[in-house]
Amino acid sequence: MSVSFDIQPNPGARSDAEVAEILASPGFGVYFTDHMVSITWTKGQGWHSATVKPYGPLTLDPSAAVLHYGQEIFEGMKAYRHADGSVHLFRPNMNAARFNRSAARMMLPNLPEELFVEAVRQLVQIDARYVPEAAGEHSLYIRPFMIASEAFLGVRAAEEVTFLVIASPVGPYFTEGVKGVDIWITDEWARAGEGGTGNAKCGGNYAASLIAQYEGYEHGCTQVMFIEATGKDRVEELGGMNVFLVSADNELVTPALSGTILDGITRDSILKVGEQQGLTPVERRLSAQEVLDGIADGTFTEAFCCGTAAVISPIAGFKSKKGEWRPQGQAFERTIQIRDGVLDIQYGRAEDSFGWLDKVA
Ligand SMILES: Cc1ncc(COP(=O)(O)O)c(C=O)c1O
Predict the structure, then answer these.
(1) Of 3.30.559.30, 3.40.50.1370, 3.20.10.10, 2.160.10.10, which CATH number belongs to 177-346?
(2) Where are the domains of the chain?
(3) Average pLDDT, the chain
(4) Mean pLDDT over residues 2-7, rounded?
(5) How confident is the model over 27-68, as pLDDT tens digits?
(6) Cβ of 311 less than 6 Å from ligand 1
(7) Regarding beta strands 35-42 and 46-54, do their DSSP bridges make them parallel or antiparallel, or are they unpaired?
(8) What is its EC number (predicted)?
(9) Is the dihedral of CA 196, 174, 346, 337 positive or negative?
(10) Is the CB of 223 under 6 A from ligand 1?
(11) 6-170 in CATH: which number?
């Protein structure tokens, strides 16, 4: 398929001084670049009208299906600046492939992987000055998303859909940094169930997780860990991250992809980098009781959570209504080693032996 992009530069683009001011203290997801990408899909015509245009509000009919039935999916990825000034995406085809798996689940049209990646490249190239220097793990967070933009009030797959890409320069996601975060284990709220949308990256999953997230905040925790909806035992993932444990005998353990959790690209990368560092990657069923008992008796020495936004964050402790469990390894040695291993590839400080980087600028 060949779709050419109509490039409409933003006449009101920020000055270099304004961009520098934003990059000095970007926060997370607060500032957006000068442009966005938009591509339309209509039944019969397919994908068309690919445009790079000034970032700005969308015009949506109030009856647009996404506003009523939540037919929407998104991705999260980053562009990294290397010391030589070049800019790289990290495994963008994994995002493109996952986007299409989400699209299939939500009855949205397939977006050819090369068009997804090209749209991201177009935005990063035109707004490359917003990709921060690597210092302090700053990067350009990229948010591709697809919405049912058809004006129609009826529960069926939309016949007009819009794909958009926006980008935001970001600093660290957690202000706690590598000090470690506390995780709340909710026994009341579920994120996903068998046959549901847990392994799709759709907005509704995140709206549904907020109540548990706020329960976690009330208990002084930064994130919440979900247990399977039925059975109340199998560990799934956090609201926006996958979870790992490191055992005393050097196993790197994470819940198997059960269909109810998101198959994180960071998760997959950690399994490979961890193995390269001498750990044994294990994807299996993990019971919450086993995790907590294992922390208490020293079987599991470290725990961490991971995702594109926060990279890898050590877990200082788990809390639930029943108590508090703190892994012995509060120096997070293994976690930091894996974290550095992944970051060093992303920022070009280590050899990209897996061929994960895609140079864009
Ligand atoms: C629910 C959930 N799990 C896991 C992840 C981690 O996925 P990735 O490593 O691809 O960012 C994310 C973030 O996208 C997420 O939202």
Answers:
(1) 3.20.10.10
(2) 6-170, 177-346
(3) 95
(4) 90
(5) 999 999 999 999 999 999 999 999 999 999 999 999 999 999
(6) no
(7) antiparallel
(8) 2.6.1.42
(9) negative
(10) no
(11) 3.30.470.10
